[in-house]
Amino acid sequence: MPLLRDAALTAAFDHGAGRYDRLVALNPGYHAQLRRSARRLRLADGGAGRRVLDLGCGTGASTAALAVAFPGAEIVGVDASVGMLLRARAKDWPSRVRFVHAPAEELPRADVHGPFDAVLAAYLFRNLADPDAVLRTVHRLLAPGGRLAVHEYALGGRRAHRLVWAAVCRGVVLPLGTATGDRDLYRHLWRSVTAFDTASAFGARLGRAGFEQVRILPLPGWQTGITHTFLGRRADAETGGAR
Q1: What separation in angstroms does the CA of 91 have from each of 32, 108, 179, 202?
Q2: Which top EC class applies here (predicted)?
Q3: Cα separation of 136 and 109, whole Å?
């Protein structure tokens, strides 16, 4: 079975949106790790006066992580799935948070314009047909010196990491997906991770897209070597700007 892409993947997320929050809550540390990746953007003064883009916000878990990390920032959450956004918008948010329906590939068309001081993309890039094009778009949307944090399943490269991921998917992810009627979505989750870049390869991809000071940081718990925070920065204007 090929990976789900574009409209097929969006439809799968729409179908699974009502059960998504309950399922991810079974993942130990899921929300704490999102908050860790959000804090790694290191916006000063609680993000006061800053604009932050939450790209691929889903039901708003990553948006909530940003709202806690940066209580003074304006946050724009964007997602391609109407079903996921309905769940996100139904939650209680301060007025500084808003949501936009748009695929990551069509941000300008949806009137999502920079500059943003920071971008968080959680569990997004392995789902994209053309991650390089979206990285270039994100680079353009960032202000000079702006920061990107990608929170993503990207295996560390050791055989043990692949074996742990396979065991979790066979023992937990696929049975839950089958029980809830979302088997295709969770089979995609399994296969999208094994088919995606290793952590080092995705770090190199960030560099090719023009990001500087790229760092690959592990996350704790059972996902060590499976999930990472990738950090990158757009160059300051006075040092030559973006490539």
Answers
A1: 19, 26, 26, 33
A2: transferase
A3: 16
The rounded distance, in Å, linking the Cα atoms of 64 and 54 is 10
- 0.85 exceeded by pTM: yes
Distance, in Å, from the CA atom of 156 to the CA atom of 24, rounded to the nearest integer, reads 22
Residue 201: CA atoms inside 13 Å, Cβ hemisphere, count? 14
| 62-110 confidence digits (pLDDT tens) | 999 999 999 999 999 999 999 999 999 999 999 999 999 999 999 999 9
**Which among 134, 145, 122 has a CA at the least distance from the CA of 42?**
145
- Tell whether the model's pLDDT for residue 238 goes beyond 70: no
Q: Which pair of structure tokens corresponds to residue 77? A: 């959450």
Tell me if 97 sits within 8 A of 91, measured CB to CB: no
Q: From the CB of residue 207, how many other CB atoms can be counted at a distance below 10 Å?
A: 12
User: What are the contacts of 134-137 at 24+ separation with CB within 8 A?
Assistant: 134/55, 134/104, 134/105, 135/205, 135/206, 135/209, 135/211, 136/209, 136/210, 137/104, 137/105, 137/107, 137/108
Q: Can you tell me the distance from the alpha carbon of 75 to that of 49, in angstroms, rounded to the nearest whole number?
A: 11
